[in-house]
Amino acid sequence: MNENIISAIEKIFCIRIEKSEYYIHALTHSSYTKENDLPYDECYERLEFLGDAVLKLIVSNILYNMYPDYSEGEMSKIRSIIVSDATLAQITEETGIDKYIIAGKHDTKQGVTKIESVRACAFEALLGAYYLDGRFPELMEFLGEILLPYIKEVDNNFAKYNAKAILQEYTQGLTKETPVYNLIDSKGPDHNKTFEVEVLYQNKVIASGEGKTKKDAEQKAAYAACIKLGAIKDE
User: Nearest to residue 129, comparing CAs of 77, 210, 52?
Assistant: First the structure.
């Protein structure tokens, strides 16, 4: 099984892997190590810590060179979206990485490998493995290619991704009151839930939104509220 995983990761990352154990650990969920009484460092958590730092450095470098006129704040806002669990989980699905996440039997049945945060952590851990394998230049090139469409999408449609901040600034400018978000419904299994959130302003429901996470649902509700209140122009 491990050989098949390494072969698949080599194709996805377009590299020749030298230290295969790093990549296997990067794709191993803690439920598997616990179930098989393996050492803690054979799951992805330590590599995720390293990969998170590597990812932020490379994304920062891309944004710094790509947008020479942007302020620190503007670049930070874009980076926060690019390195978010939602974006990273989407990348794991689109590249097929999510198919190779290893979890314990019970957790696999419960759908743990389909959880957004688990997929995101595995991706970051793979970046940590990539770094420890001595391939930082290749890693910069790989991420530059794979993240470019996401960066352009966020930059071109920033209001959709930053709607909560825009709505809060707009409402505070009017009355110094802030919006309130309420979860009104959630449906589906734990690994594939859909959340519905409503946003209230001055005790009145302004809009609602649905998403795969509460945060995503809140952003969509905020975006709908911004359009309704005129804080964002409807395109």
Answer: 52
